[in-house]
Amino acid sequence: MSYMRQIPVREKNIVLIGFMGVGKTTIGQLVAKKLYRDFIDIDVEIEKNEKMLIKDIFSKYGEKEFRRIERETISDICQAKRCKVVSLGGGAFQQEEVRNVCLENCIVLFLDLSWDRWKERLDLIIESRPVLHNRTLEEMQELFNARQDAYSKHNSRVQTDNLVAEEVADYIVETLKLGWDLYQPQKD
C-alpha cells in the first residue's frame, strides 16, 4: 500500500494487544485520557453494531462468525479513523488480516503478562470470556501459549507483571511522546 499517503506518526491509532484479562481496556482508557484521544474497545464496538452481547454472538453464530465481524470492525477502524486508542480482544490478533491492517496503519503495543500473574486474575475474568468456558487450566495455558506468537508481531512490548494500570499507562504515554519527538519533531 505504498501508494497511499503515509499517516503521520502522531496521528496513528494506538492499538493495544495481549491476552484476555491483561488490562487492555483499563490501560487503554487511561492512555486515551492522558493523550486526549477517544478510546475504542473493539468488543464494545461489536456489541453496539450487532446489538448483541459477544457471548450471545458466540452462542448463536459461533466463533468463526464472531471473528469475521471482529476482523471487519478492526479493519474499518484502523483504516478510517485517526488519533484513537483501540483495545483489541485477546484473540483478534491471531488473524493475519487483523495483524497486517494494525501494523500497517497503527502503533501496536503488546501488553505482556506472565502466565503466573494471569492465573491470579482468572476468577475476575472467566465469566465474561466465552472462549474460556468449559476449558481446564491446562487448556487455558495452551491457548495462552499458542497466542504468544501472534503477539510477538508488534511495534513495542510492555511488561506489565509488577505494575498497576496507572503505571503502565504512564510508561506508554512517556514512551510514545519520546518516540513522536524522535521520529517527527515539532516544527517551531
General description of the model:
The structure is a single chain. This protein is an alpha/beta fold. The chain contains nine helices and five strands, in the order βαβαααβαβαααβα. The chain has helices at residues 24-34, 42-50, 54-61, 63-80, 96-105, 115-120, 122-125, 137-151, 165-183, and strands spanning 13-17, 38-41, 84-87, 106-112, 156-159. It has a five-stranded parallel beta sheet with strand order 2-3-1-4-5. Helix 1 (24-34) packs across helix 9, helix 3 packs across helix 4 and helix 4 (63-80) runs parallel beside helix 5. The two termini are 31 Å apart. The model has no long low-confidence stretch (mean pLDDT 90).
Summed up:
This protein is α/β, with parallel strands linked by helices and 188 residues long. It has nine helices and five strands; from the N terminus they run E-H-E-H-H-H-E-H-E-H-H-H-E-H.
Strand order of the largest sheet: 2-3-1-4-5
Straight-line N-to-C gap: 31 Å
> Got a strand count?
5
Q: What is the percent of helical residues?
A: 40-55%
Mean pLDDT: 90
Q: What would you report as the Rg, rounded to the nearest angstrom?
A: 17 Å
Strand content: 5-15%
The largest β sheet comes out as: 5 strands, parallel
User: Tell me, what's the shape?
Assistant: globular
List the helices and strands and how they pair.
Blueprint: E1 13-17, H1 24-34, E2 38-41, H2 42-50, H3 54-61, H4 63-80, E3 84-87, H5 96-105, E4 106-112, H6 115-120, H7 122-125, H8 137-151, E5 156-159, H9 165-183
Parallel strand pairs: 1-3, 1-4, 2-3, 4-5
Helix pairs in contact: 1-9, 2-4, 3-4, 4-5
